[in-house]
C-alpha cells in the first residue's frame, strides 16, 4: 500500500480497518547472501540501499530485540551537516542531501524539519574557531552563517546573554539543519527494505560469528545457525562485543548518553540550539516537549539508563543558557549506548576477515548519519570498495595516526 493523503482519508472513512502490517515477520532462512547484524537506523538503511542501489535482496537483518528499539529510537533527533574536517564534511553533506529527499523516497513521512541549528559561542577564540569552521562548511557546499550577539538576540531573545560565567557572544547558524522523527526513520527504512524482499528478523540475537580459513561463513543466533557469504556488523553500542565474536578487538569504548523531555508546552523554541561552552542541546518536539541532552555519563557502561549526577549537570546547563526552562517539568529521561571511537569519527570498513564488514564508532552523532551511512556501507559491501564520501573512515587511521578529530578533544573516547 502506498501512503498518501488519499489513503488517510479513505481509511478514516472506512473505520481505519484497511491498514496492513508494515513489514512481514519471516522465519530465518538457512542461508543468505548478506546478513546485517543490528536492526537500528544504520542496519535498516544499509539493507534498503543494498536492495535499491545494488539489486541485492537475498539479505537478512538480524535484530536481537525489536526494530528501532536501540539508539535510533532514543536520540534527540538532531540532523545537520555543519562538519568542517575533510572526511566528515563530504560524508555529512552527502547524508543531509539524502535526508532532504527521504520522505518521498521511502513514501514515509520522516518528519524532517529544517528549522535551523544554532551553535553558540562564548569567547573571541571560540568565535574565530566557528568562523573558520563556517568557511569550511560553505566551501563544501553547505550553509553556515556567523551571527553576532545583536543579530542573535533578535532571533533568540530568551537566552541569558549576560551570564557572568558563559556570556553568549553569537552563534554559527546552519539553516538546513534541524530535526526528524527518529522512529519514523527506522520504520520507513524497514518498510521499504521489506518491500524489496529483505527479511527483517526480530528477536534474533547473534551469539557467534563463524569464520573458516579467514572467511566469514555465517552466524550463530538464538534462532539457530544461519549461513552467509557476507556479514555486516552494525550494532552501535554493542560493536566491541559483537566484533569480539570474530576475534576482533576494536578501538571503541561504549558509554552511556541520556536524554530528557519536559511536559508539553506551547511553541517556544522553533529551532535547535546548542550551548558552546558545556555540552547541551535543545529543541522542541511537535508534541510540545522540550527535548534536550548533554554530556555522556563518562564511564564505560552497557546499562542503557542514566545516572542522577549527569541529570543534575545537564539541567544546570539548561538553566545557565535559558533560565525560563526552570518553569518546565521534566517528564522522562532515558539512555542509549554510544560506540565511542578515539577521534569521535566513525568507521565504515572491511575487516581482515574475508566477507566481514564493520560499521561503527558513530559516538553520539549517528542519527544524522543514518541515510549516508546506509548508502556508503551498502556500497562497500556490494562493491568491495569504499564510497567516495567514506574513504577516510578506515580502521587503518588508528594505526597511522591520521585521526578525524572534529572536536579537537584528543584520543580520549569519552570526550568526543
Ligand atoms: C540520548 C541520545 C541522544 C542522541 N542524539 C543524537 C542526535 O541528536 N543526533 C545524532 O545525529 N545522533 C544522536 N545520537 C546518536 C545516534 O542515536 C546513534 O549514533 C545511532 O542511532 C547509532 O546507530 P543505529 O541507529 O544503527 O543504532 P541502534 O539503533 O542502537 O542499532 C543497533 C542495533 O543492534 C542491535 N544489536 C546489538 N547487538 C546485537 C546482537 N548481538 N544481535 C542482533 N542485534 C544486535 C541492537 O538491539 C540495536 O537495535 C543520540 C544517541 C542517544 C542515546
TrEMBL record:
It is found in: Cytoplasm. It comes from the Bacteria. Its EC number is 1.5.3.24. This is Sarcosine oxidase subunit beta. One of its GO terms (biological process) is tetrahydrofolate metabolic process. Its cofactor is FMN; FAD. InterPro entries: FAD-dep_OxRdtase, FAD/NAD-bd_sf, Rhodanese-like_dom, SoxB. Pfam families: DAO (PF01266).
